[in-house]
Design a protein that fits this description.
4 helices, alpha+beta, eight-stranded antiparallel sheet, 8 strands
């Protein structure tokens, strides 16, 4: 690598913004939560527990396989639909996708305190890098509202 090339370090929220920018129809919803990163991220990544309380359309998620930061999860929605998610879970960042669904979450310390949380996701268009943009921001705001309630 050329030592004269500029280098940029991105935090987890900035990386989520970049990933979402590459997907047509994706929207990122962000909010500063008045709680420490560890507490916020602990709730978001309790995939078999509080994740289902935070994500409005998830009823149950079971992590079937985990190898390092990679995982496979089986999900059932509140409407009875089932999906297999393949994903990557790292400190501050989570990206889960199935054939038809995408969930992206990120968190980082916020300037001035608290935790900046960013969410994206929605229904995927199979075979295309696109999401159906129906209700994405509304669902993300509901998820952030639920997260804040769990922290109070």
């Amino acid at each position: 690598m050329n030592e004269h090339w500029p280098r940029a370090e991105l935090d987890a929220v900035q990386r989520l913004r970049v990933l979402a920018a590459m997907i047509a129809g994706a929207a990122v919803t962000e909010r500063v939560i008045a709680a420490p990163f560890e507490e916020v991220w602990g709730l978001l990544t309790d995939l078999e527990g509080t994740f289902g309380e935070i994500q409005p359309d998830m009823r149950h998620l079971h992590v079937a396989q985990r190898s390092g930061d990679r995982l496979v999860a089986h999900v059932r929605s509140r409407y009875g639909m089932r999906a297999r998610f393949d994903g990557v879970l790292r400190p501050g960042s989570c990206w889960l996708q199935s054939r038809f669904l995408l969930v992206g979450m990120a968190a980082a310390g916020a300037p001035g305190g608290g935790t900046l949380v960013a969410l994206t996701g929605g229904v995927r268009v199979p075979g295309r890098p696109a999401l159906v943009p129906i209700g994405v921001r509304r669902e993300a705001r509901r998820s952030l509202d639920r997260l804040e309630r769990l922290l109070t």
